[in-house]
Amino acid sequence: MKKAIGLALAVLATSVVAASAQGSNRIAAVSAAGVNCKSTITLPLVTPVTGGAGFLGAEQGSWSKYAVKTLAKPLGLKVKFVLGDTPVEQGPAPAQALAQKYVADKSVLVVLGPSTSGAVAASSSTYYAAKIAHISPSATRTSLTQGSSKEATPAFFRVVPGDYIQGPSDANFMIKTLKVKKVVLLDFQEPYSTGLSDSVEGVLKKAGVSTTRLSAPNTTTDYSAYVTKVPSDADIVFFPTQKPGDAQTFAQQLVEQGKKAKVFGGDGSNDPSAFKAGGSYVSNFAPDITGIKADAAIVAGWKKENPGKAVGSFGPPSYGATQVALNAIALACKAGHGTTTRQAVLSSIKKVKIKNWILGGDLRWSTKSNDPLNAKFYIFQIQSNGAYKLVG
Amino acid sequence: MDTFLQLTVDALTLGSVYALIALGYTLVYGVLKLLNFAHGDVFMVGSFIGFGVLQLLGGTSKPVVPVWLLLVLMVLAAMVGCAVLGVVIERFAYRPLRDAPRIAPLISALGVSFFLANSMQLLFGATPRNYNIFDLANASLYTKGFNVGNVHVALLRIITVVAAFVLMVLLWFLVNRTRTGKAMRATSYDREAAAMMGIDIDKVIVFTFVLGSALAGAGGVLQSLRVPTTVAIGFVVGLKGFTAAVIGGIGSIPGAMAGGLILGFAESFSQGYISTKWSDLIVFSILIAFMIFRPQGLLGRADIRKV
């Protein structure tokens, strides 16, 4: 009986190894296969469509869809745009599952996203193994592209600056403009907020600012007990959530408990429809593009497609990431005389240069990393009527 | 001392909402021996109904009725809507499986939970809904209230706690002082014997779902008065409500009330005095401790089986 069980286990183990090897070979074959540039190319955007950060997917999806609709045809491409859902509450698992799905689909040459840093870290090696470039419109965690132990692979690109710019920008604004003495920092036990809070806290401490660090599970909805821990003489609560409504709740609960501190959110809380507590601050990688003359036609076209919706800060970089992806495919197709591969598209990403970039100026790539060159963060103060005013 | 008082206020607010959810779990379990994992999603639907009523009545900026009436209507509409939803869930997802092995309705409950969350998302999208009660009547629900020392107890918290306790007292009265309550208790004690005594079991079970779901609806509105709601909120609050029910002794109505408050206090005080980072770990460790050392919960009865 024992022998039979042992034999069965051995057969099972051999089958698993063989199946895995076959799977790897199949993916390698899919990656190396040439794709006819006249065929329909699938372009996925990996972003939270559901859950507390679902607003992100809705906004980014609408802008990427618009970019595909307006840019693909002039570049001679037939593109099918699809959304892949990575709810932030479910951690890295959905991003990993989607990566497996897309590397097995030979019509996928490049992927947009993932939108969040944790999802990028979880899936980048899968894309890299399949030679698929993935371009994020919003993942800002520093260690994705910088430092000795990078969390993302050379297949990862982003069109927005990282937290290595956001953290010091926010901290320096607090120190120089707001003249803070005491700051409370929260993180939400996931890569984005932890990294950003670490970055801000480091600069504040160096400048001699007193800091208190709090940490809330990503599923927290009621912050009353956290507000209780905010000292009554604290100037700022740095609150880098990816759920802007929570930043609003926190600001209101500060008022309820008579605390004078103001909330300072990161790019993840930049949503004028949800975070509108007067006196609060928020930073973002994109300016208000409605003020950029060169973007007037794009904004008008998008508004026509999305009546009644406001131009937010997450959508335009998504348009930009799509523009980079489509241009890279077009460049690779041109070099391959009508056929291309994932590797060729990956190699073409940094050759893409865009004049009149949607976020202002021109898009150029850093030679040291897969980050955009000279990108910066903008700081807004929320006015009493909820409007965002650029202050830094 | 101020911190202690503030955390107590937080705990009472949080705990009273948890207690309302726990009561729904406990009522259904008491009568059907079913863990209704869709209960958290009924809570979520209630919070959306409240939001809908708020918008219909002019929103927080220009309400067409007085503030007190607006709040009452929101809670009542959510209770009625969720009660109807509870009846539909019982009729189509649980009644056909009433005599099936206990795992079948449990799986059905999980299915209903996913169905509700995804249907709501298809209908209303994933965007969080914020009641923005802060904007109502110049933030008076936040700024009015009373002070205990340096701690401000906002009117909104008083409303939440008082409303929850009134509902709990009404439920206690209904279960312990009415014929319908007597029928519920009899069904809970021995369903077959109750049927033989002429009790209409179907009616009792439907009524139980009406009560439990209505409480969830009220809880959904009371919680969303202070924090935004999303279609995904049901899972987390459902888990907390279930934990409260188990701690208090699932099947016991006073137990569910006590369990909710214990959970609220455990969560607030662990965040306030131990660590904000480990509060969920501490809360769920309490659940594990109860499962190991007192599986029947605080006020539940040990399950005795004839062998």
**Total number of distinct structural domains of chain B:** 1
Residues in β-strands, percent of chain B = under 5%
- Extended strand count of chain B: 2
Proportion of β residues of chain A? 15-25%
Taken in chain order, the helices and strands of chain B follow as: HHHHHEEHHHHHHH
Structural Rg of chain B = 19 Å
* Gyration radius over CA of chain A: 22 Å
Head-to-tail CA distance between termini of chain A: 75 Å
Q: What is the CATH homology-level superfamily of the largest domain in chain A?
A: Response regulator
Which CATH class of the largest domain in chain A is shown?
Answer: Alpha Beta
Helix content of chain A: 40-55%
Q: In which order are the strands of the major sheet of chain A placed? A: 8-7-9-10-11-13-14
Question: How do the helices and strands follow one another from N- to C-terminus of chain A?
Answer: HEEHEHEHEEHEHEHEHEEHHEHEE
> What's the overall geometry of chain B?
globular
Which structural class do the helices and strands of chain A define? alpha/beta
Interface with most residues: A-B, 37 and 42 residues
Quaternary: heterodimer
* Low-confidence segments of chain A: none
Biggest sheet statistics of chain B: 2 strands, antiparallel
Per DSSP E runs of 2 or more residues, the count of β-strands of chain A stands at 14
Structure description:
- The complex is a heterodimer of chains A (392) and B (307).
- Chain A is α/β, with parallel strands linked by helices and 392 residues long.
- Chain A folds into 2 domains: 35-161 and 292-361, Rossmann fold (3-Layer(aba) Sandwich), CATH 3.40.50.2300; 164-284 and 379-390, 3-Layer(aba) Sandwich (Rossmann fold), CATH 3.40.50.2300.
- Chain A has 11 helices and 14 strands.
- Chain A has helices spanning 2-32, 54-71, 93-103, 117-129, 163-177, 191-206, 224-228, 244-256, 296-305, 315-335, 342-348; strands spanning 35-36, 40-47, 78-85, 110-112, 133-136, 156-158, 182-187, 210-215, 236-238, 262-265, 281-284, 339-340, 378-382, 388-390.
- In chain A, strands 8-7-9-10-11-13-14 form a 7-stranded mixed sheet, with helices on both faces. Chain A has a 3-stranded parallel sheet with strand order 4-5-6.
- In chain A, helix 6 (191-206) links the parallel strand 7 (182-187) and strand 8.
- In chain A, helix 10 crosses helix 11 (342-348).
- The longest helix of chain A is centred in the N-terminal third of the chain and has 31 residues, at 2-32.
- Chain A is globular and about 65 Å long.
- The mean pLDDT of chain A is 88.
- Chain B has 307 residues and is an all-alpha fold.
- Helices cover 72% and strands 3% of the residues of chain B.
- Chain B has 12 helices and 2 strands; from the N terminus they run αααααββααααααα.
- Chain B has helices spanning 2-32, 39-56, 67-94, 103-124, 140-143, 155-177, 179-189, 191-196, 201-224, 233-248, 253-274, 279-293, and strands spanning 145-148, 151-154.
- Chain B has a two-stranded antiparallel ribbon.
- In chain B, helix 6 crosses helix 7 and helix 7 (179-189) packs across helix 9 (201-224).
- Chain B is globular, with a radius of gyration of 19 Å.
- The mean pLDDT of chain B is 90.
